[in-house]
């Protein structure tokens, strides 16, 4: 697993005193304050970097708003950010995607969540002292970004692109993009350890779904949260041609895009 994308708890545990490793807890503020957190972590709740008012594509909060969040958290552009939640990493993965989109070079997902960390390492209720920074975001260009729009998705449907739907079965059967395969994002997680499955197991699992590195892959869900997790997993495994449909099915349906319904044989 590529450590520039996903890091294990023991990797982080040996770097808690490194001033350039900034740990971000994206759970609700009451969880951060009341339950405890990874030592040194700052609180940037999920709702604070998600905006459904069309300020930017999909639910992105806008570069200025995101930069203000990182400034208040004392984070600088050169820092290595490690994000976590307590929901198998799906909310933290959305933070990772958002930070990458706004130009932060080194942001990683903690393999596992708060509960997984708590099984092996200490936690704390102490809030670190924060010195605000003047963070300036540098959003990726449309050419650099993995995010794709409606028109690009329509074009991809005309090619041999593989559309991957990361939602639940009932959602998939109610409406999906034509030809899509379903890969529930949670399939990548080991329920017992709360961490990602092994690299070999993940590769075998993805292969069973036809999700292979040689394919052009387009990810979607409803509002681009769940695909963030799958996107990070594929990046950690070295997949290179992965597009991220930020508008997802919500935008597709709003524009009367063609859909398929019903169960799929052998699903």
Automatic annotation (TrEMBL):
Keyword flag Membrane: no
InterPro entries linked: Rhodanese-like_dom, Rhodanese-like_dom_sf, Thiosulfate_sulfurtransferase
Keywords: Repeat
Keyword Metal-binding attributed: no
A Pfam family that the UniProt record links to this protein: Rhodanese
Rhodanese domain boundaries: 17-126, 157-261
Alphabetical list of CDD domains matching this protein: TST_Repeat_1
PANTHER family noted in UniProt: THIOSULFATE SULFURTRANSFERASE (PTHR43855)
Protein name: Rhodanese-like protein
